[in-house]
Amino acid sequence: MTHFDLVVVGTGSGNSILDSRFADWRVAVVEKGVFGGTCLNVGCIPTKMFVHTAELAAAPAAGAKLGVDAELKGVRWSDVRDRIFGRIDPIAVGGREYRLAHADNANVTVFEGTARFTGKRELEVALRDGSTRSITADRVVLAAGGRPVVPAGLEDVPFHTSDTIMRLDELPARMVIVGTGFVAAEFAHVFSSFGVDVTVLGRSGAMLRQEDADISARFTELARQKWDLRLDTTLTGSAVVPGGIRVDLADGSSVETDVVLVAVGRQPNSDLLNLPAGGVDVTTTGHVVVDRTQRTSAEGVWALGDISSPFELKHVANHEARVVQHNLLNPDSPIEADHRFVPHAVFSSPQVAAVGLTERAAKAQGLRYVSATQDYAGIAYGWAMEDTSGFAKLLADPVSGQLLGAHIIGPQASTLIQPLIQAMSFGLDARSMARGQYWIHPAMPELIENALLNLPLD
Ligand SMILES: Cc1cc2nc3c(=O)[nH]c(=O)nc-3n(C[C@H](O)[C@H](O)[C@H](O)COP(=O)(O)OP(=O)(O)OC[C@H]3O[C@@H](n4cnc5c(N)ncnc54)[C@H](O)[C@@H]3O)c2cc1C
Ligand SMILES: NC(=O)c1ccc[n+]([C@@H]2O[C@H](COP(=O)([O-])OP(=O)(O)OC[C@H]3O[C@@H](n4cnc5c(N)ncnc54)[C@H](O)[C@@H]3O)[C@@H](O)[C@H]2O)c1
User: Fold this and answer.
1) Where residue 15 sits, what CATH number does that domain have?
2) Is 62 a member of any domain?
3) Does pTM surpass 0.90?
4) Spatial contact of 30 and 9, defined as CB atoms under 8 Å apart
5) Residue 213: which domain range?
6) Which of 129, 150, 226, 283 has a CA that sits 20 to 30 A from residue 270's CA?
7) pLDDT (tens digit, 9 = 90+) per residue, 337-351?
8) What is the number of domains present in the chain?
9) Residues annotated as binding site for NAD(+)?
């Protein structure tokens, strides 16, 4: 049994905790998979590299209505894939090497295997070579993330998740995507832009239904023009058939495809950790229970990121890692995580970005609010793009002008949202934000300026 000052389980955001301030701590890092976790290897970073490439592939088709006749000659899938992972894989390898061998990490022991609790702050690691190691620690950080959920009905066919779909050997002609959330919206955009015939299956009647209803409705309407949307139905079964895979739906229809991508959400990896032995409580969804300082129910055990957060976003995992880092180093002056205004963006086509309350949530909370929208079509840069479907929607307190929620669907939504996140985080009211600064003309942020001015404040 080896004792450590600190054990970190998971090398996604957990890996960023360690720096020179821990140089005289005895630290163990446990990783069962690839160094760097989901975001680097199978999440945010490669997906956005594919999304950017998809936008280039889609551009010729979009040019025609502006009078530019261009043609997509082809997508060299294996070159795209190998360029992206040729950049990412060495980062994961380098991160592993750094922890294993660099002088900065003389105090760090890396265990490559799966950790599970055997007692309070006592862990057993099943190493990849088949052996086990028992370790104890004064402090444990759980940063073990989550994994894709696989629905029933796919027992008899091969299928992909976001973990594997980006490494396909070749681009298929047809793809069925099960799910209508972030992963479905982003990969439907990527693969359809590359020429794949995409079908999306959803249980509910809309895509991105967690978004504000106006955004979800607009996204669904646009998605229907590009992808075969089969909504309000569920997958009941599937079979391998000559030439592909048949997916059967509850409405009695079926779809034939070459590849199935499952995108129905993620579950925390808490079940791999034998948490009851460690005294660590979980919610009914399997998320580790944490207080505002990221402490779990077990003394000396902290958690961060997807294993404990319902947000399942990298910027949240990184923020929580900084909170845990501070609290490990400064136990007498702990800080709290700030989850007031957590933004997100869906990098599909169109992009969607949001922060704060949807109109549905504002109503449910009984808040007094006013709302306003501004179409891209009504701003000069929107004319330049000939955009006819994008808009921003703001919700604000009618008296104070404080923003309650902001929702954007359209080009560069993920960037345009940032000043609104800033305004909400620092309490800047809509009037001051609109008129207390210059807005560059005729740039896209005029969308935000006009949406702010459209708010019917008291
Ligand atoms: C396809 C996709 C796209 C995404 N895009 C975005 C995006 O654009 N923006 C955004 O903000 N977020 C995005 N996310 C979400 C983001 O990737 C996650 O929120 C983030 O990576 C979570 O970080 P984490 O450190 O909590 O967990 P992870 O990065 O998942 O790290 C957990 C690590 O723990 C290891 N582990 C698990 N159990 C054990 C165990 N018992 N013992 C040892 N090791 C263990 C795992 O192998 C893993 O390496 C995306 C996710 C996916 C799937
Ligand atoms: N741009 C980003 O920030 C980004 C991108 C990708 C993923 N992510 C993160 O990863 C998480 C997982 O993404 P996701 O798209 O898998 O989940 P999600 O929660 O966004 O969407 C899952 C969808 O699948 C539906 N669903 C659930 N069970 C189903 C079933 N049996 N059959 C059909 N549909 C079903 C749900 O109703 C939901 O609409 C997200 O919550 C997000 O936080 C973020």
Assistant:
1) 3.50.50.60
2) no
3) yes
4) yes
5) 165-264
6) 129
7) 999 999 999 999 999
8) 3
9) 179-186, 265
